[in-house]
Amino acid sequence: MAAPSPAVRQLEDALIARLRACTTFRDLLSAHGHAVRLYLSRSSYVATQIVHLCNAHGRPAHAARVFAQVPDPNLHLHNAMIKAYAQNHLHRDAVEVYVRMLRCLPPPWGGGGFSGGDRFTYPFLLKACGGLAAVELGNQVHAHVVRSGCEAHDIVQNSLIEMYTRCGDLSLARKVFDGMRNKDVVSWNTLISAHARLGQMRKARALFDSMPDKTVVSWTALVSGYTAVGDFAGAVEVFRLMQMEGFEPDDVSIVAVLPACAQLGALELGRWIYAYCNKHGMLCKTYICNALMEMYAKCGCIDQALHLFHGMPDRDVISWSTAIGGLAAHGRAREAVRLFEAMDREGKVRPNGVTFVGLLSACSHAGLLDEGLRYFDSMKDAYGVEPGVEHYGCLVDLLGRSGRIQRALDTVRGMPVPADAKIWGSLLSACRSHGDVETAVVAAERLVELEPGDVGNLVMLANVYAVAGRWSDVARTRKEIRSRSTRKTPGCSMIEVDNIVREFVAGEDLGPELGGLAAVLDILASQLAVDDEEFADSDCWLNANVFASD
HSE-up of 457 (CA within 13 Å, CB side)? Predict the structure, then answer.
């Protein structure tokens, strides 16, 4: 393609200056129209700048129209279009632009070599491959990276690691990582985050411990990983170590550790995080307040959660759902219902499935049968929310608590999705409260089918058979319990003392560091002891009063 004349180049430079001055998409459209009138919209130089600006404004469709107007787009324009598609999650379109580029662009230096991309092409193309989770396509692009001579660039190598981790192939990601001469923090953090995201915390921790220069991103990846796999004590421990090493938590690390605080009941740490967020001006961020609200609600401090909620400048659906669910969990059902009605009246945020779980749970605990049925029926009709298994579980619990056992059973059998163990357990509990032995047998048998390894379900089934007078079934169930050698999962409890959360498991020896705690527990146990004869057959003790009122 012939180079533009000096006059054309001068017009292009002036237009580029105008494009760079655009602050809104409307400004960009005006400048684009000016380019069309000057017959410059077919220039790759001008079109590349317009595509970059379209991408910055989140308008990939307009960028595609600009790209299509250029008869012979050069490498820079192809790169801009691939970047625009990849950053707007249009990954397949990004790959198609690259395929077109391979067909259209001439080989370098006019020879018969490989007409691939450059170090600006492949990071975003690899991002597209990772977004598609297409490891075979990623392997082909990796080969193109090698053929084009771009493999030595750090940004390309980091993109290869990210692509393979997104595709779930950590062995290839590690192979690229091990072959890097200059591993930067992005390389380490990408691999650590990938192992943490997949729940491989031992590998993530080993990498983390061998990392020479850690960043707050590295620490946060570890905290997030421990929280995701349910090792909440590990998450809190790493969060504390991060501060001891001199790293100040950012908003991402705070959001990562707060669920662990909530699950552990680590209220003192949660309060410290609140004070830290308040000091550093983070309480203006909705997602920070949402995480703090959830922590306070799960730690039993619903009033503090509501104080945060009412002070939020902007509330999203998570904010409302957290407040409604927290009120329901604390037995303040009517307040939860009033809060939902206030949300509905305000009209700024539409409820979602989580909102209705909290609302229906509130109605169930307060015995608001008519209101609960009305809200359940309105989910799909008025709000477009399709009821899921959690909502049916709340409905069954609501009907069961209200004594509508047969209707609850009909609801379970009519569900569009199979009922889970929680729903059958809720129905069984309602049968126990209202003395419906026949339905209790049905529910207990389904519980055993769904969770055959849970000894508690087998014991409950034996109890139900005993109350129903089905002694042969009692004997069969007891025999099945003994043949499986099932063992109930030991109970545990946790307590926070001096900002340290300790876990106690039933039957576990107490360490010497706990001092005289074991002796105190022995004294308490002796005072609470009952006659051993009452528990002579504790593996399958039949409670004849299982359906007696509480």
Answer: 19
**Nearest CA to 325 among 360, 349, 286?**
360
Query: What would the pLDDT profile of 411-438 be if each residue is shown by its tens digit?
Result: 999 999 889 999 998 998 888 888 888 8
pTM of the model: 0.77
Q: Tokens 């977004």 map to which residue?
A: 131
404 conformational bin, left if phi > 0, alpha if psi -120 to 50, beta if neither: beta
Residues 389/417, Cβ–Cβ less than 8 Å: yes
For residue 485, the SS3 value is coil
- Reading the block at residue 251, the tokens are 């908003």
Least trusted range by pLDDT, from 40-44, 113-117, 245-249:
113-117
Q: E strand or H helix at 494, and its extent?
A: strand 492-497
C-beta neighbour count of 99 within 10 angstroms? 9
User: Which of 295, 240, 259, 264 has the alpha carbon at shortest distance from 503?
Assistant: 264
Dist CA 521 CA 527 (whole Å): 10
Backbone dihedral angles phi then psi of residue 12, each to the nearest 5 degrees: -65, -45
The per-residue b/e assignment along 460-491, b for 16 or more CB within 10 angstroms, e otherwise, is bbbbbbbbbebeebbeebbeebeeeebeeeee
Q: Tell me, what's the pLDDT at 455?
A: 79
Q: What distances in angstroms separate CA 288 from CA 222, 253, 257, 284, one per listed residue?
A: 19, 10, 11, 8
Closest CA to 390 of 414, 355, 365, 366: 355
**Cβ–Cβ < 8 Å for 291, 254:** yes
Q: Is 18 exposed, middle or buried (0-12, 13-18, 19+ CB in 10 A)?
A: middle
Can you name the residues that pair with 504 across neighbouring β-strands? 493
Angle at 490 between CA 488 and CA 493, to 5 degrees: 145
Residue-wise pLDDT tens digits, 467-491:
888 888 888 888 877 776 555 566 6
How many Å apart are CA 274 and CA 435, to the nearest integer? 48
Q: Which amino acid is at 531?
A: D
* Strands, E assignment, 252-363: none
Using pLDDT thresholds of 50, 70 and 90, give the confidence band for residue 536.
Answer: very low
- DSSP output for 395-455: HHHHHHHTT-HHHHHHHHHT-SS---HHHHHHHHHHHHHHT-HHHHHHHHHHHHHH-TT-H
Token pair listed for 278: 């308040």
Candidates 108, 111, 109, 172; CA nearest to 136 is: 172
Return the structure tokens found at 312.
């939020």
Q: pLDDT confidence of 516, banded at 50, 70, 90?
A: low
Beta bridge partners of residue 493, listed in sequence order: 504
CA–CA gap between residue 443 and residue 335 (Å, rounded) = 33
Backbone angles phi, psi at 522, to 5 degrees: -65, -40
Find the helix or strand (DSSP H, E) in which 493 lies.
strand 492-497
